[in-house]
Amino acid sequence: MIAVDGRTLTYDDVVAVAHGHAQVTLSEGVSARLKRERAVVEDIVDRGIPTYGLTTGLGTRSSYALPREELERFSVRTVRGRANAVGDPLPVPVVRAALLARVNGIAGGGSGVRPETVRLLVDMLNARVHPVVPEVGSIGASDLCQMAHVGLVVIGEGRAEHGGEVLDGATALRRAGLTPVRLGPKDGIVLCGASPLAAGQGALVLHEAAAVLLLAQAVTALTYEGFRANTSPLDPRVLGLRPAPGQARAAGELLALLRGGDLPRNARRVQDPVSLRCSAQVHGAAYAALDFASAALHPELNGCGDNPVVLAGTGEILSSGNFHTPALALGLDTLALALTQTAALSAERMRRLLDPAVSGLPANLSPYGPERSGFAPLTKTAQALAAEIRVLSVPVSTDPRHGADAVEDDSTNASLGARRLAALLDRLRLLLAVEAVVAAQAVDLAAPPAPGRGPEFLHRAIRAVVPPLDEDRPCGVDVEAVAREILSGEDVRSTLRAWVGEVS
């Protein structure tokens, strides 16, 4: 059970709700907060005070005063008129993450929504009623045009997935034993507002990025063993002379994974190629980028992104810029670029292993030498993956765009940044699997007398699903098996986390 209070939601919580079967409940005190804020909304309505999105129109129509009798209908029109997203449906885990992020943002205060509206969102999560939300529609000026599809289901319209079927919203709610809510003043903009898609999917991708970076460390350690790399660039005394962000952590993790092996005493060369020698610097930079993105995401996941915001303490409703997410968009772009550097190193390490003049191993790691292709054709796959990753790293936060004329003249594309990172991570896992398959063969041929614990563990796991290369054979299926069964496996990830955790 995940208790939502608007302040303490973690990436692990989001993953547990999005991918697992964790139930959601509102923490003690949230209901009372929602009631106090709703009382402010009703008071403003009763007194007819001009308030954006409550007693006035939205966007370019913000100067238009709404008649009192129109306010509830305006909330419904707000939802219907903004459900304009297009494309394939977002994956169910992403929708669940977005719903959780919206519930958490409301729970923390500031929205003024009717309590029964947020309770229905919680019930939808727990009953696994998942609105069908098309993947394209947000430019980062809130996730309006996509979250409106959630709002449609809340009022018994739109479409939702439930029990493996896509149904109309009213039927999906009814089958789950739920009832649509009647929207009151301001409820429509609350359902559409803030940036819960960027925050929810952002939490999922940052959680996965941390895991993939650790996998990059483990695969690098396996390559170190096959290459018989020199570990002196990982020496803390060396790194302390130029303490670049993240490099000490990355080097410490690599040494922890190599612990128990003989590499410090039995390196082949005095100086290795940059792709091996500077792994700690590149992976360290990626860790620093991940920290930057995490710092930007936390207030989006555990803060109020509404506009306007309700201040229950003073009875005010104030215009807000809290929906704007430039730091998050920049953080996601930065991480994408850093992971592209990580990918480039992986592709190059793999190529160095195939070069007998550099590695000292048979050409293309074929036990038969140059009369077989070995892994040489796999370099094309690695370079193709690296090319796709480079394309996916193009910054989206600098793209020129605008929403409503005259008033919405900037936006961030944060939601796109998060969605792009998910695709990038899929390809990076495959690229690391390419390196892992090749590195495992290098370890077989190099036959180190005492491999480190991390490489030994990863090599054993790979050999459980992929045999060594003898005669030439299709290797794409091997790469996909390693990516799916090993690099995506929680057992492997948790073991690696435990080892690197010893140095933190």
How many helices in DSSP terms? Answer: 20
Distance between the termini: 29 Å
- The H-level CATH homologous superfamily of the largest domain, spelled out, is Fumarase/aspartase (Central domain)
CATH C-level of the largest domain? Mainly Alpha
Helix content: 55-70%
How many separate structural domains? 2
What would you note in describing this structure?
The two termini are 29 Å apart. Helix 9 packs parallel to helix 14 and helix 17 crosses helix 19. The mean pLDDT is 94. The radius of gyration is 26 Å and the shape is elongated. By secondary structure, it is mainly alpha-helical. Strand 8 and strand 9 form a beta hairpin. The chain is built from 20 helices and nine strands. The chain has two domains: 193 residues, Fumarase C, Chain B, domain 1; 256 residues, Up-down Bundle (Fumarase C, Chain A, domain 2). It has a three-stranded antiparallel sheet.
Mind sketching the topology for me?
Layout: E1 2-4, H1 11-18, E2 24-26, H2 30-47, H3 71-82, E3 86-89, H4 92-107, H5 115-127, E4 130-131, E5 134-136, H6 144-154, E6 159-162, E7 165-168, H7 169-175, H8 187-192, H9 196-227, H10 236-239, H11 247-258, H12 274-277, H13 279-301, E8 309-311, E9 316-318, H14 326-354, H15 356-359, H16 378-392, H17 414-446, H18 453-463, H19 476-485, H20 490-500
Parallel strand pairs: 1-2
Antiparallel strand pairs: 3-5, 4-6, 6-7, 8-9
